[in-house]
Design brief:
The chain has nine helices and no strands. By secondary structure, the chain is mainly alpha-helical.
C-alpha cells in the first residue's frame, strides 16, 4: 500500500494533467510513479525535464537502461527494478543475460560495462569516486560530456528510487525483487 497517495484523475493537480497526458501519449500508459510524482506539478516537471534532456544526450537508451538497473539494484528499489527490467526488455531490447549483468553493475558489452561500473561506483561512493575510476571510464571511450551524463543518469535514477521507496509505490509492472550480488 502506498504511503503517499496516488491521486485519481479528478484529484490530480491541474498543472500536472498535461504532463501526465504527454507521458500517456509517449508510453501508452501512465505508470504509478508518474501519477505519484504528479502530486507536485513542480516535481513532475523537474523529473520529466531532466529525463527528456538525458534522452537527447550521448548516452544511448540501452546504456541508460543498464545504468537504471544497476542503480535500482544498489538502492534495492523493487519498483524501479521492475519498471526498468520491463523497459530494458521491451524498449531497449536487452536480453536476460544482459539484464542480470546490469543489475550486478556490469555488462556483456565492454564499453557499456565501463559506464555501468562507473555509474555503480558513483552511487555506492555517493560521488566520491577516485581518479582511477574516472580514468577507467575515459579509457573505455567516454568523453567528459558523457561522463557528466552518466552521473546525471545516476542522479535521476536515485531520485526515482528514493521517491518509490519513501512512497512504497505500488508496482504496476511485472515484479522484480532486488538481491543479486554486485560485481562492483
Amino acid at each position: 500500500m502506498n504511503r503517499i497517495a496516488i491521486p485519481s484523475a479528478d484529484q490530480t493537480p491541474a498543472a500536472s494533467k498535461p504532463l501526465l497526458e504527454a507521458v500517456q501519449k509517449q508510453l501508452g500508459v501512465i505508470p504509478n510513479l508518474m501519477k505519484l510524482v504528479g502530486n507536485s506539478p513542480a516535481a513532475l516537471h523537474g523529473y520529466l525535464s531532466l529525463s527528456g534532456a538525458l534522452a537527447k544526450g550521448s548516452i544511448d537508451i540501452k546504456t541508460g537502461e543498464r545504468i537504471a538497473l544497476a542503480i535500482a539494484e544498489i538502492n534495492a528499489c523493487s519498483y524501479c527494478l521492475s519498471a526498468h527490467t520491463y523497459l530494458g526488455k521491451n524498449v531497449a531490447k536487452l536480453d536476460d543475460i544482459e539484464l542480470a549483468a546490469n543489475r550486478k553493475g556490469t555488462s556483456t558489452d565492454p564499453k557499456a560495462a565501463a559506464a555501468v561500473h562507473f555509474a555503480s561506483k558513483v552511487a555506492i561512493e555517493r560521488g566520491h569516486v577516485s581518479n582511477t575510476d574516472v580514468q577507467a571510464v575515459k579509457a573505455a571511450g567516454f568523453n567528459d560530456a558523457e561522463i557528466v551524463e552518466i552521473v546525471l543518469h545516476v542522479a535521476l535514477n536515485t531520485l526515482t528510487n528514493y521517491v518509490n521507496e519513501v512512497a512504497q509505490t505500488e508496482i504496476d509492472f511485472p515484479e522484480v525483487k532486488p538481491g543479486l550480488p554486485r560485481v562492483v
